[in-house]
Design brief:
The complex is a heterodimer of chains A (about 290) and B (about 325). By secondary structure, chain A is mainly alpha-helical. Chain A has helices at about 5-35, 50-60, 65-95, 100-115, 115-140, 150-175, 180-185, 190-220, 225-230, 235-245, 250-285. In chain B, about 65% of the residues lie in helices and about 0% in strands. Chain B is globular, with a radius of gyration of 26 Å. The termini of chain B are close together. The chains are: A mainly alpha (about 290), B mainly alpha (about 325). At the A-B interface, helix 1, helix 3, helix 4, helix 5 and helix 6 of A face helix 1, helix 2, helix 4, helix 5 and helix 6 of B.
């Protein structure tokens, strides 16, 4: 804006730094505290350093089978991720031309994002309960429930991840140059070839971003799962249950493990995006290389 | 929101500007009209929203008018879900009944969190959009703000325990420097910690839309304001804030709707002691009183939509995305 650094710059830099500290400080505290010694408590100071609480975690805390919940959440997260990517890219392509029901889909997505999660969760659970009752009354009275991780739970998670996916697709196609597709078409590519060899490689970094949102939002999802997950719990639900009963650092150890998965996925995704961008920068354009 | 992009699929054979390639394409795809393809592409997502969002909402409304006993839903018309919710509201006048007090408390929390997230979000976005000039730095710092959003909310809540607890860092520091004799009790499991955690979790929803609005502001406008003799403050009030308004409104809608329906943060950080609109629904559900829960959900939905429709009068959301 102006030459040199104004006083405003330094004030706002300090403000921003404080905000980042506010964001990360508390999280760092529990990562550190999860390495408490066996005698350590929920607060500082550290009482020695050990992996005691992590090993305690693998032995299970009482009645809760954390290992099983971990595997369930991981599986659900990957399925949600895959579906979010495929459905969002497909719907994003559809939005590039007018079609009927366009605004219905758009407003459904926005509403799904901002209607309080507990209401969506309650609605899904009522829907499945009523279906269950119908099945019990008319077909099979020993039927238990159709609610479950990959029925009602999956649906609940998708209502949360798909709006993000769709909005990212809008952002992508807002700055997409359609002449590239026209060129492919003029060279005789079929619509599928155009998509597969021209559009997809260009939007791939952002598509990985959609996958990142899909997995992490599902991995940590709580409010929508609360009523709609069915008989078995996901890992965040188990963690929330533990907040009221556990008074030892194993809850921090669990938090550290859950975060480690998040950070691993974030690193992988960002790394992949970075690599693809670099490749695109290196090979994507032959400008300035003369006529070949 | 992208409209139809000229040149893509919009140019059909009967339009004057159809190229030979367009015609060839039409031949390659006999029977697949563009609208059929659109349906194929958008249909799956539409079906998910239909099955897991729109139909469930209809069920919430229907069940809110059902009857219930201690064990089960009774599919017969009844206003009990609502009358139970508003029990004693008229008799107690002019004092507020439980539901009235709960909603008042929720709105109060909402307002506090909204004001704080707006302040922080605005200045963080302002810093990123106007003071960070290198694209790489802008990306990096935005990412820094986004990463916590990809991690667990519950963990970010319990992360406050070692800081705010009775023997936490803040209390020991306060005692050490002699500001207080006894550890302060209201730091954790209180309204204070609820507001703090909500701000901590959801300022992100304010930063992103405001940043998006600000980054689109033509820097020349700000130069022009300076050249015309406007002070920094005048530029802020008369140029930046009006142009960032869409982002401010969208961010506000996000934050307000999240806080209105929240029951997890208020539960965990309030030590399950603070009543709020979302908590009522959860309590009713735990008691298996589904129609009463549904009735409360309908009320919450109505109030939320009232707030959104008031706010979206200020700005056309669809145009901004």
């Amino acid at each position: 804006m102006k030459e040199g650094r104004s006083r405003g710059f330094y004030v706002l830099s300090a403000f921003f730094a404080a905000y980042v500290l506010f964001l990360y400080g508390p999280m760092l505290a529990i990562y550190i505290l999860s390495f408490q010694g066996p005698q350590g408590g929920l607060t500082f100071p550290m009482n020695g350093a050990s992996l005691f609480w992590f090993t305690k975690l693998t032995q299970g805390t009482g009645i809760v089978d954390l290992g099983a919940a971990f595997r369930r959440s991981l599986a659900l997260g990957f399925v949600v991720m895959a579906l979010t990517v495929v459905l969002s890219v497909a719907a994003g392509m559809a939005f590039r031309r007018k079609f009927r029901a366009q605004s219905i889909l758009f407003y459904s997505a926005i509403a799904s994002l901002i209607v309080p999660s507990i209401i969506t969760s309650l609605g899904i659970s009522l829907e499945f309960r009523i279906v269950d009752d119908l099945i019990k009354a008319h077909w099979n009275d020993s039927f238990e429930t159709s609610m479950g991780l990959f029925t009602s739970g999956l649906g609940a998670h998708l209502t949360w991840t798909l709006p993000f996916g769709l909005l990212i697709m809008f952002a992508i196609f807002n700055r997409f140059d359609p002449r590239l597709e026209e060129a492919a078409r003029d060279l005789g590519a079929t619509p599928w070839q155009t998509f597969r060899h021209v559009v997809l490689p260009i939007i791939l970094p952002s598509v990985i971003g959609i996958g990142l949102f899909g997995f992490t939002l599902s991995w940590d999802e709580l409010a929508r799962s609360s009523q709609a997950i069915g008989p078995v719990n996901t890992l965040p639900l188990e963690l929330q249950g533990l907040t009221t009963t556990v008074t030892k650092p194993d809850i921090y150890a669990l938090g550290t493990v859950i975060s480690a998965v998040s950070f691993a996925v974030i690193t992988l995704a960002l790394g992949a995006i970075h690599l693809i961008n670099k490749r695109q920068a290196a090979k994507g354009s032959d400008a300035g290389k003369g006529l070949v | 929101m992208p409209g139809p992009v000229p040149g893509i699929d919009g140019a059909r054979a009967f339009q004057p500007r159809a190229t030979p390639a367009d015609r060839a394409r039409a031949l390659l795809r006999p029977g697949f009209s563009p609208s059929f393809i659109s349906w194929l592409q958008a249909g799956p997502m539409m079906l998910v929203f239909l099955a897991f969002f729109l139909v469930p909402l209809v069920f919430v409304v229907i069940v809110s008018f059902w009857d219930y006993n201690e064990y089960q839903l009774l599919p017969a018309f009844s206003g009990r879900g609502y009358t139970d919710t508003f029990e004693g509201c008229i008799a107690k006048l002019p004092e507020l009944c439980t539901i009235g007090r709960t909603y008042l408390k929720t709105l109060e929390l909402c307002f506090l969190v909204w004001a704080i997230t707006l302040f922080i979000g605005f200045w963080v976005a302002y810093f990123l959009a106007f003071h960070v000039t290198s694209k790489t730095w802008q990306m990096g710092l935005s990412l820094l703000c986004t990463i916590p959003f990809w991690t667990s909310n519950v963990i970010r809540m319990i992360a406050w325990i070692p800081l705010l607890g009775r023997n936490g860092l803040v209390n020991s520091a306060l005692v050490d420097i002699g500001l207080v004799k006894q550890p302060v009790e209201w730091l954790l499991y209180s309204e204070f910690s609820v507001v703090l955690a909500l701000v901590h979790l959801f300022t992100f929803f304010m930063v992103v839309p405001i940043f998006n609005s600000m980054i689109r502001i033509d820097k020349a406008l700000i130069e022009a304001a300076y050249d015309a003799g406007a002070s920094g403050f005048q530029t802020l009030v008369n140029v930046v804030i009006p142009l960032a308004k869409p982002g401010i409104v969208i961010g506000s809608i996000f934050v307000i709707t999240i806080v209105m329906g929240d029951f997890i943060t208020i539960g965990v950080m309030g030590g399950q002691q603070i009543a709020a609109a979302g908590k009522i629904i959860e309590t009713r559900l735990n008691a298996l009183q589904f129609p009463a829960a549904a009735a409360n959900a309908v009320i919450l939905l109505a109030i939320t939509f009232l707030i959104i429709s008031m706010m979206s009068r200020i700005v056309d959301i669809r145009k901004e995305l």
